[in-house]
Every structure is written in C-alpha cells, then in structure tokens.
C-alpha cells in the first residue's frame, strides 16, 4: 500500500500516540542524552553545553570510590536476600490460596492480602516503626516483660531481614495475582487423570501444578535478576538515617546523595549510568539464559 | 468416589460427616481432607490475614484514642478506650497537614486524568496490527521499560525546565508508564476485530471507534490502570523530596515522612509536640491520624477496583 494511503488511513492513530510519545521524549529520552554530563566537568552554572569534556575521569572516580563499591556490595546483598527470602513467598501463598476451595473465602483473603501493595513506602515504614521501633508496640510489650532496648529499626545486624520483611508484608500478597492466574489456566482433567494414575496431593502438585507455574516463575525470576541493582530506593532512603549508611547505602541512594545533596552531578550521573547499563545487560543476559532453557522469557511478552 | 475409611462410624453419620468436611466445592476425584491439615491451613491463613489487618486496626484505633489511652497502653492502643475525632479535627483545621492533603488530592486528580487519557490514546494508537509505524512507536515505549535515564539527568532536566517548586514536577516526569500503556494495548487488541471493522465500514473514524466502542468495552482495564496511576501519584514522595523545596507545597506523603517518621515538628502545623492544657490531642494519636489520612483514599477506591484485577491486569500481564 502506498505510504500516502497508509498515512491517510492511520493518521488518527499516529496523532493519538503523539501526547505520550512527546512526554516520553521529553522526560525519558532527553535525560538519556543528558547523561553526557558523565563525561564532563559539569557545573549547573555553565550547563552541559559549555562544561568541558574530561573523558572517562568521572568513571575512574566512580570505580575507585570505596563508598561506591560498598553501595554495590550492599545492593547485591539485599537483592540476594530478596531473591532467596521474598521470591518464593508469593508462590507458596498462591499454592495455599489455590487449595482453598470456597470461592468466597478465597476472594476475601485475596482482597485483604493485595491491599498493602497500594500503601506507600512512607506508610509501610511508618507502620513498621510503630510496631518494631524503639518506641513501638513490640518494644512496649517487652518493656512490660522487663526487657529493654528493643529497636529493630536502628539495628544494622538485622536490617536486611527487616527490609525483606517489609517487602514481604507490602508485596507478597500482590505477587500471588500472576501465579493465581497461571493456576486458573490448568486443565482440571490433568488432576483427575493424575488421581486415576494414583498420584497423591504432593505428587499432583509436583507433576501438574508446578509445571504449570514454571514459565511464570522463570519470567519473574529473570525480571528480578535483571533488576538486581534496583532495590527499594524509596524504602531505603526513608531508613537511611535511622540505621546508618554502612548497611543501607545502595546504588540509587548513593547516586542521590552524591548528586542532589553533595552537588557532584557528573560523578553521580556516571555512577547512575553505570548502574543503568549494567542493569540492561543483566536483563538481556537473563533473557538469553531463559531462551537456552527453552522458556519464553521476556521479549515475547513485549513484541507480540 | 472412594469409600470412607472410618469404619467405626455408622453409614448415615459417615455420609453426613463426609458432606461436612468435603464442602460443596471439592471435585469428586479429590481425597477427603485431612482434619489436621485443614486446621493448620486455616491457622496459617488467619495468621496472614491478621498480619495485614492488625497493624491497620491498632493504628486507626490509636488515631481515635486520647493521649491518656496512649500513655496507658505505652504506645499503640489495642483495646478501645474513649474514642474521639479530636486528632482529625486538629489536623484538618488548617495548617500544613490540611494544605498537604489538598495538594495531594489536586496532584492525584490532575495526574490520574492526564496519565489515563494519554495512555488510552497511545494504547489505542498502537493496537491495530499493521498500522503505519506502530512497531517503531511501540519500541519507543519498550525501551523506557528496560533502560531508565537515571535520577541525575532527570533532575537537571526538571530543574532546567523551571519546574522546581511547581506541581507539574510531580506529574509530568511520571505521567506515562509504558507498562500501563501495554496493559491497555493488550486489552484493546483482545477486542473482536470484526466489531471494529464493521464500525469502520459504517463510516466511523478511529476517534469514534475508540470513544463509542472500545472505551465502553474496556471499563475494567481502564479502571485498573487509573487505579495504578492514581495510587502512584498519591503515594509518591520522592519526586516531591527532589523537586519541591517549599514545604507549603509538600504533598501529604512528604509531611508524613517528616512529621511522623522522622519526628520533625513542622512550623505552623498545629501538630507540634507541645501539650495544650485544654486536653487537645497531641503526639501519637495525631501522628496516627496523619497516617490514616494518607491511607484512606486508597481504602476508599480499592474495593471498587480490586474486583477487576483478575479481568484487567492478568490478561494484560500474561498475554501482553
């Protein structure tokens, strides 16, 4: 079909995408170009047009900065905690809920456990502070029982468990939604056939239910691995002062403090760019691995 | 059906018992449930539900309690004492919390409408297979899901656009979420093409097809996406922390962070820690009232939208 004909036919559609494309162009793509300051001796007063280029100097500073390396280590530790301790929770919860047969009970519990996902991190952290903090509920009960000094919010030793618990409280319930959807697509005849073949509950779960979940699990695991360098920025910036920088500084909070607070814009931009590019590589690599294992991965989801 | 293993029970009561334990929803091929297993399962489910609801209960109760009750309980109140709305009257009688609530409502309302409309248009614009340039445009959206520009350049852009201390800085940078656009797009693509083609043959252009046919058929998906955007705007605090220096323009979440989480006394807020002789509520009840205020809109909207989750989100997330 001739280009003019197609343009006349689809012109309205193009016009419709325009507002969103403009917003993305300005607020997503222009900043991508703005990363050019990572190669400059940038000052807000001279702007990125007039600031001198300094090659890889900012990146050298990033990679030789001990605080940056600490932030990388903390980020990876927190990611590891969450993959081991958070990731399986929604799966287990979905299997548990799926085994509840009464639709009324099931939907009620679903509505309740989805709810915390819609609370802000300020609210979630405040709730945890009121319950597990030094002046909180648990500390109060312990004081009555004669034990003082309980304060999880400022204890660096248990901090990673604390923030993982916060993520579980906030998002584990919401996380089941995608697994429940996958479970609802399983053909019930498979279970019946398995029973006829003598499979008990656990064998049915192993041979019918879990294989049905496998593509979803792999997909989410890929996304999570690709996101290894992104760990709850809002969650951590809220608790940074209480627990100290030593355990709570992650890449995003590092970028924020070096740039916005300390004003070392080019250095912070370089650190942020390193994080963005490594994250991109991680997602692409994880997806490649998924393809090797014969799973659909992420792209089909996007490019259908 | 398998025969009961409980030989000692008479036939009649055994069948009644089995009907009772099996309930009405158990498929015929499934075994009888094990009573101990059922009990454990019920216990776990109750514990999970309690873990979500107990904090909310004690926080709401504390916000309605007097300082005396709080002192007696040594913190959060779990047993109702004398209930009053004094804390709410105090924070809503002008001052920074009242102002912040209005800011949050305004930003959320404007932002949600803008984002939802823009996303619906974009999603429909990319939903017809084979339309001009729809793949490159889709790619523009997809890239933003895999590579973010980063906080520093975004901050410098907002700053250079003169949006510091402007409410638009809380809306425009996050106005379009590619994920939400894709949810809508996959929902629109699931609509029967023949209906849309028939309308087009009858002379309807794309604007009419979108407004008269696609929108009415997509209420569930649109409700879910609007909720995502709305909750996003309502809950956001970091954008405000970056872009809003004037604390008279702070949204509620930022006030909550400073006043409740960090214990900063806000000037001119009427929420200081200073005790007033006439029994005015201060301290914890007021703090918890601010917290409840920040949760209420979510609790109000959530029940109406959550029944669409399975219909809207799941289709989008899995097929999309």
From TrEMBL, chain B:
UniProt membrane topology term: Multi-pass membrane protein
Chief location of this protein within or outside the cell: membrane
Annotated localization: Cell membrane
Domain ABC transmembrane type-1: 101-305
Pfam families associated with the record: BPD_transp_1
Membrane-spanning parts: 42-61, 103-125, 137-158, 170-188, 220-244, 288-305
Gene3D superfamilies tied to this protein: MetI-like
Keywords on record: Cell membrane, Membrane, Transmembrane, Transmembrane helix, Transport
UniProt cross-references to PANTHER family, sorted A to Z: ABC TRANSPORTER PERMEASE PROTEIN MG189-RELATED-RELATED, POLYGALACTURONAN_RHAMNOGALACTURONAN TRANSPORT SYSTEM PERMEASE PROTEIN YTCP
Entry's family note: Belongs to the binding-protein-dependent transport system permease family.
The protein's name: Carbohydrate ABC transporter permease
């Amino acid at each position: 079909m001739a280009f003019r004909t197609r343009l006349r036919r689809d012109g309205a559609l193009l016009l419709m995408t325009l507002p969103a494309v403009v917003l993305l162009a300005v607020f997503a793509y222009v900043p991508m170009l703005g990363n050019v300051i990572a190669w400059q001796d940038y000052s807000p007063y001279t702007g990125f047009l007039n600031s001198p280029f300094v090659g890889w100097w900012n990146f050298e500073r990033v990679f030789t900065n001990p605080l940056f390396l600490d932030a990388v280590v903390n980020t990876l530790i927190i990611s590891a905690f969450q993959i081991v301790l958070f990731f399986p929770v929604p799966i287990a919860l979905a299997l548990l809920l799926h085994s509840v047969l009464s639709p009324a009970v099931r939907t009620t519990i679903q509505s309740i456990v989805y709810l915390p996902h819609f609370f802000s991190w300020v609210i979630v952290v405040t709730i945890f502070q009121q319950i597990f903090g030094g002046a909180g509920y648990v500390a109060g009960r312990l004081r009555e029982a004669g034990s003082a000094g309980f304060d999880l919010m400022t204890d660096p030793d248990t901090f990673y468990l604390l923030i993982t618990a916060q993520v579980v409280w906030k998002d584990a319930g919401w996380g089941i939604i995608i697994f429940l959807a996958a479970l609802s697509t399983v053909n019930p005849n498979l279970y019946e056939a398995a029973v006829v073949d003598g499979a008990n509950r656990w064998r049915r779960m192993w041979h019918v239910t879990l294989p049905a979940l496998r593509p979803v699990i792999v997909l989410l695991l890929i996304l999570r691995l690709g996101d290894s360098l992104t760990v709850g920025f809002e969650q951590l910036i809220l608790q940074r002062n209480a627990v100290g920088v030593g355990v709570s500084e992650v890449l995003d909070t590092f970028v924020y403090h070096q740039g916005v607070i300390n004003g070392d814009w080019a250095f912070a931009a370089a650190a942020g760019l390193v994080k963005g590019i490594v994250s991109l590589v991680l997602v692409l690599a994880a997806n490649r691995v998924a393809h090797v294992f014969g799973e659909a991965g992420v792209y089909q989801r996007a490019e259908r | 059906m398998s025969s009961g293993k409980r030989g000692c029970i008479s036939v009649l009561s055994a069948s009644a018992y089995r009907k009772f334990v099996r309930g009405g929803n158990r498929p015929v091929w499934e075994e009888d449930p094990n009573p101990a297993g059922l009990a454990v399962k019920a216990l776990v489910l109750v514990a999970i539900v309690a873990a979500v609801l107990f904090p909310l209960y004690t926080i709401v109760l504390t916000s309605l309690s007097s300082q005396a009750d709080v002192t007696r309980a040594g913190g959060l109140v779990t047993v109702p004492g004398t209930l009053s709305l004094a804390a709410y009257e105090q924070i809503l009688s002008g001052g920074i919390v009242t102002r912040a609530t209005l800011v949050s409502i305004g930003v959320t309302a404007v932002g949600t409408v803008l984002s939802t409309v823009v996303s619906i248009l974009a999603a429909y614009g990319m939903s017809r297979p084979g339309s001009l340039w729809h793949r490159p445009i889709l790619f523009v959206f997809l890239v933003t899901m895999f590579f973010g520009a980063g906080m520093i350049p975004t901050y410098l852009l907002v700053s250079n656009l003169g949006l510091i201390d402007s409410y638009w800085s809380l809306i425009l940078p996050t106005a379009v979420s590619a994920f939400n656009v894709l949810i809508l797009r996959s929902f629109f693509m699931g609509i029967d093409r023949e209906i849309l083609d028939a309308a087009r043959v009858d002379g309807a252009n794309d604007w009419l097809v979108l407004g008269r046919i696609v929108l009415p058929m997509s209420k569930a998906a649109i409700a879910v996406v609007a909720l995502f955007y709305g909750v996003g705007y309502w809950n956001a605090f970091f954008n405000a922390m970056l872009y809003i220096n004037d604390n008279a323009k702070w949204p509620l979440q930022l006030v909550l962070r400073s006043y409740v989480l960090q214990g900063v006394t806000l000037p001119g807020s009427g929420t200081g820690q200073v005790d007033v002789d006439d029994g005015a509520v201060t301290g914890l009840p007021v703090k918890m009232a601010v917290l409840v205020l920040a949760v209420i809109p979510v609790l109000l909207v959530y029940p109406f939208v959550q029944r669409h989750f399975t219909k809207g989100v799941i289709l989008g997330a899995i097929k999309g």
